[in-house]
Amino acid sequence: MIDKQGFNAAHFLHIGYVAVGSNLASATRTSLEMVNDALGLFEMTKIRITKQSQWYSAPAFPKGNGPDYVNGVVEIETTLSAEDLLAALHNIEARLGRTRPRRWAARVVDLDLLALGNEVAPDRAGFSHWFELSPQAQSQKTPDRLILPHPRLQDRAFVLEPLAEIAPDWLHPVLGKTAKALLAALPAAARAEITPIQR
Fold first, then answer.
1. 37, 112, 152, 191: which one is catalytic?
2. Is 144 an active-site residue?
3. pTM value > 0.85
4. How far, in Å, CA of 155 to CA of 83, rounded?
5. Is 145 a catalytic residue?
6. Residue 27's CATH number
7. Helix or strand (DSSP H, E) at 51
8. 8: in domain
9. Is residue 72 part of a domain?
10. Mean pLDDT per segment of 10 residues, for the chain of length 199 residues?
11. Residue 127 domain boundaries
C-alpha cells in the first residue's frame, strides 16, 4: 500500500532527526523564510516531517563567524537509507542556493542529519574516531563519509535545545544518554545563548 506522500507501507520506516539552520539571507528571502522554504521541499521527497521544534536564534559557530543563525530540529519518517537521505537533504540545500566555499561559512540553508534510528555509521570505530577529535582537528578535518549520530551534536546547544524540545527521551545510541540529559550537561552560558524566536 502506498499513501498520498508516496510511502510504501512494505518498506521499513526509519525515524530520524534533522537540524535546520540559516544565517545568510538570499536576495529575496530572510533566514527565517529560508528555513521554512527548506521544510516545504521535504514534501517533494520521501521524507515526512512528524514533529517540528520552534525556531531559535543562536550565535554563528564558531563564534564571530557571521550573523546569528535561525535554528531548529525536525523529526522525520523516511524509507530512505541514511546515504540516500543525506543526498536528498543536500539536493534541497542546492535548490535553495547553498554553496560550500569553506568550512563553517555562512549559509542560506544548512540541513544536518543528526540521527537515523539507532544507526551508528560507518561503524563504532569510525564514529569514535570523529567523536574524539580535538577542537583544533575538528576545525581542519571534514569526514569523507556519513557519520551517525552526528559526532558533534552533544556539544552544541543550538542542536540540543530544539532536539530536546521535540524528543527529550531520544537516546544517543553510543553515549546512552537522552537528548534532555545531554542538554542539561552543557554549560549554562551556552544554553543561555539560544533564544526562541517570537513569531
1. 112
2. no
3. yes
4. 24
5. no
6. 3.30.70.560
7. strand 47-52
8. no
9. yes
10. 48 91 84 94 91 96 79 97 95 80 64 97 96 81 90 96 98 98 97 90
11. 14-196
